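Before the break, one more example. Copy the sequence into your notebook; we will annotate it together after we see the structure.
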Amino acid sequence: MRLPNPMAQLARLRAFGQAQREMLRASNQPGRPRGQGAGDGGPDLDEQLEQSLLGDLLDPTTPPPPRPEAQPPTRFGEAGRPLNRHSPFYVGFVGALGALVAIGLWGALGRLATTLTILLVSLFLTLALSPLVEWLMARGLPRPGAVAITFAGLLVVFGLLGWLVIPPVVAQGTDLIQNAPGYLQQVLDARWVQDLDKDYGVLDKFQREFTARITDQSFIQTVLGGILGAGKVVANGIFQTLTILILTLYFLSSLPRMKQSAYAIVPASRRLRVASLSEEIMRRTGSYAIGQVSIATINALCSYVMMSIIEVPYAAVLAVAVGFLGLIPMVGATLGAVLVGVVAFFGEPRDAIVVALYYLIYQQLENYLLVPTIMKRTVSVPGALTVVAALAGGTLLGVLGALLAIPVAAGLLLLYEEVLVPRMRHS
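Here is what the structure looks like once it is written out:
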């Protein structure tokens, strides 16, 4: 086969472009019979297009393949020409339809925000508890037994937290309601209140305003709505907690099947590498969660001992709050220290100085002794990346985002080191 002439190829390319433009103009003219050009009785534009394409690929002396025979018309009539995908109406309609689908998906995603949050927390708890399940399985237990023991331990932890928090809150709330009249009378008998009442008649104005509010129907509805809203929030919180626990149990039981199903959709040539990277990311996430919970638990227990020694009020409730705040990276321990210091200051200002000294010493021990010891086999994320990840996660998802920011950053860093850098090195 001899090579085609470059000038002939250029001519066929120009003819191909001209045929495309004519076909586009002719497609907007309804009723044009097949086999006619743009109205001048010339050859079919489809044939010109095919000949131009064949001319670029085949030798000019090679005859083109025969055209397929047209389908005979049915009793419903002959099939028409396909829609012109370059038509402005077609492009605009498809574009508008795509925009509507995107808007609908975005709205559905916003409505599913709570569901997605529950799912994300359940997956995070699953990855955190998975190392414990595997440790029990390595000791000879079958997976159902290991999952049952791990989940029972989780329920015990939640039960202990409820036992520590709920009774003091209920008791102290009851005491506050019973002693509220006495507190109010102490405020009214205070000297500065008496001076304000003598000069400005504050008590009479307060009594008139209070009577007007109590007899105002809209104010009563607002108060009742606030109480019902608070009850609804509590009920939703309990329901979401139970849902998270149930999903965590299901995920723990079926985690190997879930991973196998996810790896099955990966091409076989890359499945081993994807599985290895995914397992390492999940190992780092679970190890980080266990390490962070351990550090927060130690902080809560030591804080409870310290508050019990110096008799800070509400020691159990504050210790639980310190433990939960300690889960937040970077700023959680500091927030817990500030909370305890404020409560201690209102009880006895000298206790606040002891609290400040305690947390100053404890945080140094935690930063330079506990964290390196517990986190040495979990994640290795540079300090600057830790700060950026925590800020970004807190901005996007609040406290939950701050909790998940460090393991997500560790996973992305692993992909950067094991996938992106080698590919750029060999590109």
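Residues 379-427 form one domain. The mean pLDDT is 77. Try to locate both features in your own notes.
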